[in-house]
Every structure is written in C-alpha cells, then in structure tokens.
C-alpha cells in the first residue's frame, strides 16, 4: 500500500460526515506504519474507542469506512473465532463484530452491515505472518501462496466495502 497523508485519509470516508472525518484520530503510530506490509489501513480510533476505521486503496483513490465497535463484549461460549477478511483464527476476544453504517441516505436512516474482523484490524500482518494470534492454531495450514492469501483477503474486503459504499 502506498503511504497516505492525513488529508487523503480524512477525505476518503464514504459513510460518515465530513465533520466526523475531521474529528477522527489517526493511528497512534501513524508516522511508523509498515506501509509495505499493508493492503489496507485499519485502526481503532484512540480518541473514540467505540469507533474503528478502514481505508482501502483503490485505483480511483482511497475508500474510507468508519465502523462501530460494540460497547459491550460479545457473550458467547465460543472459544475461538475466525476473521471474515483474513480467515485468521483467534481466541474469542481476538475477533469482534463491527458494524458499518451504509453510505448515503440508507446509512443516515440507521442501516448498517456487520462483519467479524480481527479486533486489532491487523489482517495484512496476520496474513504475512508478521503478527501471530494468541490462539496457537490461528493460521491454518494452507497450500495457498502468500500472493493468493493476500488476493483472497483483498477480495473479501472489497466485497464488504462494496456493500457499504452501495448504500
């Protein structure tokens, strides 16, 4: 992923107001992000921990999506969960259900789409083995190459982004 400026990030959001985009905080380690290892930028807003953000590179420019983090923990007897983007297995606290308001009028009416994602939004790092989940069996043995796993992750993310952007 090519490095982005704060201005590019703030202007990329399709499902929040310009004021909300202006108030969001960038990742705390923004200046040190490993851009070469990222296929998208994802973070929980340090100033509003119930908000998370994704910025996805596109040919026409970055696409930003704001997400809501659940206020209370998920109550489930499930001991492990799978991220729907990168397919990394985590202990149940390592995956969270995030809800994205739809773009446009439907989003302003309160319509959302949800997805289970790595709680730290570090999917590209998990796919590349640069970060390991706490659950030892987090990465399942696959015969796919790194490029194929990245392509699958990108396709999963693009499908989710298309639902949000279509409103």
Could you give a short description of this structure?
By secondary structure, the protein is an alpha+beta fold.
Write out key terms for the chains shown:
167 residues, alpha+beta, three-stranded antiparallel β-sheet, two-stranded antiparallel ribbon, 5 helices, 7 strands
Strand order of the largest sheet: 1-2-3
How far apart the termini lie comes to 26 Å
Radius of gyration: 15 Å
User: What string, H for helix and E for strand, traces the elements in order?
Assistant: HHEEEEEEHEHH
Q: What is the overall number of helices?
A: 5
Measured as a percent range, the helix fraction is 25-40%
Q: What oligomeric state best describes the polypeptide chains here?
A: single chain
Question: Could you describe the largest sheet, including whether it forms a barrel?
Answer: 3 strands, antiparallel
Percentage of residues in strands: 15-25%
Shape verdict: globular
How many separate domains make up the residues?
A: 1
Question: What class do helices, strands and sheet pairing give?
Answer: alpha+beta
Would you report the number of β strands?
7
Unreliably modeled segments: none
Average predicted local confidence, pLDDT: 90
């Amino acid at each position: 992923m090519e490095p982005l400026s704060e201005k590019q990030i703030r202007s990329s959001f399709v499902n929040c107001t310009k004021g909300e985009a202006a108030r969001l905080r960038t990742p705390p380690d923004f200046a040190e992000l490993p851009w070469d290892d990222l296929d998208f930028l994802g973070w929980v807003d340090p100033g509003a921990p119930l908000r998370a953000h994704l910025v996805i590179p596109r040919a026409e420019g970055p696409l930003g999506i704001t997400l809501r983090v659940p206020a209370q923990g998920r109550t489930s007897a499930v001991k492990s969960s799978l991220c729907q983007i990168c397919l990394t297995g985590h202990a149940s606290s390592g995956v969270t259900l995030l809800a994205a308001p739809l773009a446009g009028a439907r989003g302003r009416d309160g319509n959302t789409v949800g997805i289970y994602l790595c709680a730290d939004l570090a999917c590209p790092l998990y796919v590349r083995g640069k970060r390991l989940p706490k659950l030892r069996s987090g990465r399942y043995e696959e015969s796919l190459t790194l490029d194929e796993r990245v392509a699958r992750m990108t396709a999963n993310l693009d499908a989710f982004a298309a639902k949000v952007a279509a409103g």
